[in-house]
Amino acid sequence: MWDRQPCRTVFQPGLGARAESTEPYPVASDNVTDMAIRTASAHWQGTLTEGSGVIRTGKGGLQGNYSFTSRFAEGEGTNPEELIGAAHAGCYSMALSKGLTDAGFPPTSVDTTARVHLDSVEGKQTVTRIDLVTVAGAPGLDEAEFAKIAEATKENCPISRLLSPGAQITLTASLA
After folding, report:
1. Measured between alpha carbons, how far is 158 from 18 in angstroms, rounded to an integer?
2. Pair 93, 14 in one domain
């Protein structure tokens, strides 16, 4: 057990209160390891329709240009919705890998695509739905058991839990 570090209580609507370390690194206490705080940043220059920007994830993992046309049309670059989709697909794939392994069927691969729907709701741009499509290689696993594990993963993946109060999340899962 490590020494306790200073913390503050953070309230998140829909998620309740939780303790958050004020230290810049994770601290193990009472057999629980606090996760690191992840960062990303964006720089925008100019007006909404004529400007452009750069989105970066912490530690230099990803960097992408974005603009009005990359977000609301078919222009070059990325957009926040694609990044949300990438985060959701990545989180779901890792969580499904754990779920399959815990059930005794360690996967050989998990491939997930997230289709993020940005729609106008009452005149406001809103992420309304995310369609997850996943294919997993898990030798010895039948479709019925896989469907149960895949659905439970959808309900418990941290990014699904973050997004599901506001967006409908659908799942199409199949074995390779």
Report:
1. 15
2. no
